[in-house]
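Re: duplicated header lines in exported structure tokens

Our pipeline writes sequence and tokens for each protein into one text file. With two proteins the header for the second block appears twice in some exports. Here is an export where it did not happen, for reference. First protein block:
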Amino acid sequence: MSPAIHHVRPNARRGAFRTIADAVRAADTDDEIRIAAGEYPERLLIDRAVTLVAEDGPGTVRLTSIAPGLPVLEVSASATLSGLTVLGADPSRPLVLVTAGTAELRECDLAGGRVEAVRAASLRITRSVIREAELAGVHADTSGELWLTGTLVTNVDGTGVVVSGTATAHLTDSTVRSVSGSGTRVRGEATAVIRRCVVESAGRNGLLVEEQASVVLDECRVKDAAAEAVRVLGSAPRAEDDGGGGVRITGGEVTGAGAAGILAAGTGDVLVSACSVRDSGAAGVSADGSARLELVDCRINGSGACGVMVRGAARAVVTDTTVRGAEGNGILVGERAEVRVTGGTVRETAFSAVHVGGEATAELVALRVADTPEHGIAAAERGRLTLEDCQAADCGLSGLHLDGYAVATVDNMTVRRGRNGVTAQSRGEVRVRDVRITDVERAGLTCGPDSAPEFTDCRVSGAGTAGVVVAEKAAPTLRDCAVSGTEGSGLVVARDADPTVLRLTVKDTGKNGLFVGEGAKGRYEECVLSATAYPAVHVAAGARPVLRDLLVTDTAEDLSVDEGAEPEVTGCAARDVKKPVWPAPGTSATGSGEAAGTARVAVAGPQGTVSGTAEAGDAEQDVPEENLDDLLTELGVLVGLERVKNDVSSLVKLMQMVRRREEAGLAAPPLSRHLVFAGNPGTGKTTVARLYGRILAAVGLLARGHLVEADRSSLVGEYVGHTGPKTQRVFEEAMGGVLFIDEAYSLTPAAGSNDFGHEAIATLVKLMEDHRDSVVVIVAGYPDEMEHFIDSNPGLASRFSRTLLFEDYDTPELVNIVEHHAERHQYRLTASAREALIAYFEETPRGERFGNGRTARQTFQAMTERQAYRVAEMAAPDESDLITLRPQDLPEWP
């Protein structure tokens, strides 16, 4: 028997029911009840599977309350209601109550009370409006399911949607707006999957998750919540097998929260990926308690406090995430928290970009920080910090700052510009390896009072006051470090300091190479100091340094000693020094009381006196011109880069022809010497650029051939009128040489932005035209991005007509690079080690983070460290053991 159709018409005399209740009582299962337009004051009980339809469309049937305090509509069966308007008299009570079965509401307008499902009932609400309720708009306290699709919940004096008990909720393409409480609240053991929904203007949280609840938030927008946009107090862990459980936020955006954008404060797991968090009143993303937070590929902008804050005993993993414009720290790790950050950028923060304090632990890998008035990365109190392959630029204080009793291990870091490079004031264990510091206003490396950091293979160039400063009572160790181009001294040692300095190289300083202050001590062995404007070594009164096997070259004076100083000198030598105290290499001292062995030296003479007519620039002026054949040979021995070598050789021949024509009085052909270097990181672009400048100088087409490196932050200003002068200053530094602009495509701003990158490009184009014979400009970066960059300005396309492609190194070339480093450092690989190295590089992933030559160098460093640990366990290693690298010295598979 097919379902029947019943009609409801209030004024009908025959063939129709006058009330909806009468029609429901008369209907059988699956019957349809069609209701004519009008107002129906009824309390409706639906206990069978029927369908109620507004015959003339949504909004034409109004079902109103006749019993305040009781639901207008109570459903205990799988019924469907379509197009009805249901109006309650008490907003604090249920308007629609579902106690059993599955009730489906389609295109309904529900006002004056909440819609509630209890016990084991389920509820489907589609393309409807729920409004003017108190306590909650929708409440699913059930073991059944809730579906909310294309629905608006608004004007609720309480929470928009509550999911509790063991309910499972599916919210899709719906909006919760203008509620005094939280937008959506999920608690108990409930589960909610929320997709493409909007929560805006919530009086408390946009989304609140409590107890054992689990939530998936996919491509949603949470706007203008008065408290946190997303607040997680729950304890549900994320299942390892299927990724279920916990809270997962994917895509979408969180904007304008009055407090934190996302807060994880329970004990459960919170995963946030590809999400934008903007303009929060407090932290962008915060983890506290024992929460486990994971951020992947997120963008956190304009936070009122820290961008990412992790405290308590929380743990966080942050991957490829950008933090920008935070009013506090970019990333703050405190108390006993643990954080691992891989990739990503932190910039334009009001406080230090990254701060680790308390007893927290942070591991930072391939992170870039920039543009902060304070420190780039800082660790204080008893924080523990591990850095690998990180960069800091344009920091108002230090690129890396260590204080208190912080423990730090640093491997491969770059610091560019800012006040200081690395400041190690911590009394905890600090080990710093392979740090490159350029163009800082004050000191490159600073060792604070009573500190004892270890620096290995660090490079400082272009520091202002000094390359390295050792404060009072500090006892650092410096191994295989280098300082060049400082305005002040290379290494400055303060009173009562006792450093150990091994194989330090100091060159081109504005004052002394080594300044040992009053009462200072220290051991300085096998150091090379050259081209210093003041005496290469100065020992102040009361100082007692041990100077062993030092070599001073190309300067006016090797040593000056104040009265009362007692340096212990052994095996020191001077070469090409105008007023030497020490003998030339290979000879012994005579006539001044200094023996060939150890001697106490006391030579009177004021610090800084340069005798004769020598001036600070003499050392550079006396350097002979480089030979073109030698430079081409130096290019030829570089591993790989065959196409680049051929291109450069062809350019040299062309340049030589141009030079000969000019010398013969003939007009030079139109020729652009500016180049595009296109290739991935670590493929030798900077090395070749430096050689190219020296080659052009040898050909006679550049005056000096020096290299000036720049990037976007060097050229682009922060306000109107700042970019032009900034770009011009950098260009002027490169006059007579090569201006190398890395990641040049970053100068091209996004469409429609007010970025000053275009102004920098325009300034460069004009300067290249005005000084076409004085500067060569090389722009470098990824191949595809460089093509777009050149196309962004017609002036660029006409001036950069030649591109040199730097291809990735293949496995044999990577092995050759390792072998080259081994030869330079007096190691050798066994045949089996070489075979293992080939297999290692074959298995190394060649993704975006593959470093080419840098990867090869890091592999060699890891092999030498593992070899050192292995040999240290031998009872009596011989010389062969000390220099041989074996298969077991290879690092773990990448």
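Second protein block, exported in the same file:
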Amino acid sequence: MNFLINTIVKEIGAQSFGVFDDFIVENISIDSRSMQNNSSTLFFTLRGQNHDAHNYIAQLIENGVSFFVVDHIPDVVKGKANFLVVENTTLALQKTAKYYRALFCFPTIGITGSNGKTIVKEWLNFLLSPDYSVVRSPRSYNSQVGVPLSVFGINENHDLGIFEAGISSKGEMSKLEAIIQPTIGVFTHIGTAHDDGFDTLEEKITEKMQLFKNCEVVVLQKNEVIEKYIHQPTFTWSFDDNSGAVFVEVLAQKNNSTSLLIHYNSNSFSITIPFQDTIAVENAMSCICTLLYLAIDENTIADRIQNLYEVEIRLQAKKGINDCMLIDDSYSSDYQSLKMALDFLEQQKFYQKKTIILSDIFQGGLPIEKLYEKVALAIQNNKIDRIIVIGETISKYLKDVSNLISFASTAEFLNRFNTESFQNETILIKGARSFNFDEIVVLLEEKKHETVLEINLDAISNNLNFYKSKIKPGTKIMVMVKAFGYGNGGYEIAKLLEHNKVDYLGVAFADEGIELRKAGIKLPIMVLNPENGSFNAMIAYDLEPEIYSITGLQAFLKLAQKKNIASYPIHLKLDTGMHRLGFESEALDELISLLKNNNFVQIKSVFSHLSASDDVAFVAFTQLQFERFRTYSEKIITALDIQPIRHILNTSGIFNYSEMQFEMVRLGIGLYGIGNSEIENKNLQNVSTLKSVISQIRTVPVGESIGYSRKFMVEKPMKIATIPIGYADGIRRAWGNEKGYVLIQNQKAKIVGNICMDMLMVDITNIDCTPSDEVIVFGKNPSVIDMAKQLETIPYEILTSVSQRVKRVFYR
């Protein structure tokens, strides 16, 4: 991407401050944390409901960025960079993308629908890449911000664009249409996603159809309800109506494949899709019809379609062998997604040493020398310690890069490379599908059983931003990562929080904080339940203790004096009504006396804990706690003449009593997608999904029993699936005997019989499934909130009970 910045000043209606005459934009960015930001970057400081990028301009200037699009110039950076001031920076980003898109003239496929957009886009890219130089949306970049960023990936060598567009409310699609400028439309499916943004289904369909208003044709499954809202020519297909362009007959479904007979233009040809489920077949038909419209030969279509693959759009972080961390991106290799993967590597690196295993780069749309020049620069910007390249092309063009090891093929790498050379490092594995890098992932991944807890890092970021939106810009935020991040994973989440610039982390015990320090976390860490015997270790690892008693304070002061330490940060806990830990009002005079004229410690914060911030029935008591906290803390502040951080709000406190935020708030369970009211939960995203697989399926006759103690007797023939997860993995035994269920093929399968230590059994009599099929134990459905209600407990207990033997997989 190259254009003079002066060309967009008028387009975006900007007022300029600085020198812009010769600046060529080579990179557009909206993420202050990206290591790709440099002196050629034009940075758009977006302001959202939960964030404001203007706060990071000073840091970006230090990192070399000097050109910004802003809605105001913060005082601290005036005169220090070049600014284009606009009313709305998001709108300016969209207008810039619209201008940039108009510089290129080639056919573009615009895809929308409620489901299947990303799959159809990826499959069309695979199917059409032999015939075109394709530019496409990376991953699921289909939003008001994602679409503009996708368009900036176009260069002069592309001759086909494939972009997806998603909307959540009225008035959005026309903006995306102006940016994508599609000539061919593909409508995948209409469903319930984002229904909240529309009053009726018709309103939602009408809005989506705005993407196609200038298209020469729209490809879709024949549907009279939808077609009446389309005013362009259509290319329709159907399983039961031969009045459209394509009529489809299903010949057979077996061995995870579907054989179809396609009738088109008075001709018929057979085709085999390597999937059986209905949605996959429908998505494949959207692709087939698009290829037919583009006049791709029928034999070519049949040959390529049989090689379709499951689309994986997530970047995943997994534990590897020899204490390594793997970033699994083993299914695509193009320049745009490489930059994203490198940013994810930096964000999630478990160790300072970074290795990348990279295949030949495809679909760059650039001359090959220029493409690999950019690849080398991106790798160097991220300070990769060891670069392993696989493929003859990449080996040739990156041969002069330092720390490079090259192999001609994946097989050569697997045969020659010693896995023991991978030790205590973070490894990004990124390769085109044809290189079969999944074999490398299998080789380097730590082997554990097939039950996994998947943690959605995007959802964590969303939930963090939601609670940030409830507090004032200057208020600090402490996030609790105790109990192994509420069962989700301590270090990985702490790393994400450090990346998102939270102010403090909170852990329960010193050993949790020590593990975070050993893993490289540098944020301030407060230990909430420090034992006197752990003070030595806490000082060694720069951990800050909560002090809640006179004896604890005396012990710490004695140690500090012995070590000749000055101004060590401590946090005073006040008891305002929880009656668990903390200084009561009667102890304040003695506390003040011990601290007065004492330079061994620094009172970093004074805080308390709310007992019932989640329950509106106790508003009066919560207000009493606020009054006590204000009185107690002001007494300490006045007597010691200090200005500590004060904090009392927990997750529910942030949501229900944001006016009492003081200088800091503490976010706990809400980060992990669990609030204490329906309104709160509507704004949160599910973070944790516990998955397993079917080990075995059997038919059990009448009169037999299932499980220990014969708790479940079979009254009619049943199909039973055994799942390799039990109470040793954290599934409460009380969840068995038809009280609980799992999800298989999106259908409820009741748990029958007692839950065993390592297994449970479910009724799949009416579910079409096979061994190795995926099983959802909890996630969106059943949610941990639903499970907690049934089990008469709280979601905390369910999350923190998930055993450490269950592998955690982190993804974006």
